[in-house]
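Troubleshooting log. The previous run stalled partway through. Resubmitting the same two chains, unchanged.
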Amino acid sequence: MSARTAATGQRRPRKENQTRLAFWLLLPAAVVVFGIIVYPVIRTLIVSFFEVQSALAVETPFVGLDNYVQAFMSSRFWGAIGRTLYFTIVSTVLELALGLAMAGLLNARLRARWLFRAIVVIPWAVPTIVNAAMWKGIFNAQYGSLNALLTQLGIIPEYYAWLGDPFVALNMVILADAWKTTPLVAFFLLAGLTSIPPELYESARLDRASWPRIFRSIVLPLLVPSISIVVVLRTVEAFKVFDIIYTMTRGGPANGTQTIAYYAYVTAFSNQNFGFGSALSYIIVLVILLLSATYLRILRRSEMSLL
Amino acid sequence: MKAAKRNSILVHMAAAIVSLVILLPFAWMIEASIAPQRDLISRPLRWIPSGFDLTRYAEIFGGGGGGVGQTFRAALVNSTIVAVAVVLISMAVGILGGYAFARLRFPFRRATLMVFLATYMLPQIALLIPLYFILSSLSLLDTKIGLILVDSSLVIPFTLWILSNYFLTIPVELEDAARIDGTSRVGALFRIILPSAKPGIFAAMMFSFLLAWDEFMYALIFTSSDAAKTLPVAISEFAGRYTTDFGLVAAGGLITALPPIIVAIIFQRYVVSGMGAGAVKG
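Second attempt completed without errors. Output:
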């Protein structure tokens, strides 16, 4: 790319200042994006070192790292971290495994492939909140269709409150999340699958290799870059999970689905404890920064077009 | 070949099962939106509704002042305006910036792109409190303009990424030929690059529409009335308030889901090309 530009550069019609042009072309994007986020990012960091107990607080003493220490010493914080990790790991593994299978189906020779692809795209397009509201109805303890289905099939004896037990509820939220997100993962992996030259399969078939073997020695290694990106993108996204929790369970029952983002939200907005809430948000930022450092390294290693 | 035939049958069966798992919950939501309330709360549940009950749709589209219908209709208008504006802003800004990343050499190019992409890693919760006070001091709380601005800051990094990657796949020679004829860079962008980047543009438009339509946290905190409240906030409220009236939530949810579903199915073939260009090359 750069070599080619250098070569064509000699027959450029006019001498041009690419840096200045790039500045003007990127300015609008930078103004909107950074104009909106830079000050809040810094401000939240500063507030996290102060004790701010309400929006109208007159006295807001500087407390250094106290808010962070307070977080690290509280069991509620570690509970939220534990649930967030559980949500992140289980949903990522589940969505990746199902997504791989689904990507294989999307890539397979199907009669009505366009129809199958159109169906698979639906959950991804369903807004997160609609998805959450839908599953909240399906899991309903008194009228939910899941209860109706399972009792009528004789699988469970009586109606069960799926969102009534803290740990069960967390897993049900993960299922609801997987229904919506797996197709996105599948399409992402499909993009990687289609870049595998068909000749590779054909020669493997000629060598009478079995499908599991082809999957293990050809498909999987070539999919590693896409898989890594999916894993890190999904991990980051799952670590920030809020919307689906807010709508399905409000963090309940008994804080059983209270993830770290939801805990930060409740602290800052319901309890108006801005200092502590800011510290909690910054802990999320720090964890995600760590994850994204990994992310960028993987992207570079997989020879991204731009990075 | 016998084995091939058996394989093909298995693959079709698997595809059918996946389709069922996807369609059944959604079909249930459709049914719940039109089944009479007594069917929905009956035990054992009546799977085949005893009749059509369109009262929720009547309420949503015709319900009078102060009710669910009015809130929903206002949210529908707000969501549409916000999403369309966010798409327009992030496409305009993304096309210009994406071209710069794809075609121009300048110092800190990589670093600049990375900083844009890194904003995706920031959780919205970390910006929420200061943003609230900024919007408040600018009198932009509970306004569509305020929401359009903050939502655009979420969506622009995505359009930049998809578009710059797609622009890279367009041969430089096409542009060079035009530029020898005296066309300016910006002229070449609009006359040469854009017409040949349609798949990337459609993909970016689709992604930005879905992201904007889906956005919840900013809308939840920064809007409070029918003036700017969007559909996700309205639906979340319904789901919290009408726990026993799933039919109403289902009807509202269905209408909310329809625009993105239609967009995604129409532009479905660009999902892969957009992600393919945006993700892994070669």
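Takeaways: Residues 298 and 304 of chain A are 9 Å apart (CA to CA). The domain at 62-301 of chain A is CATH 1.10.3720.10 (MetI-like fold).
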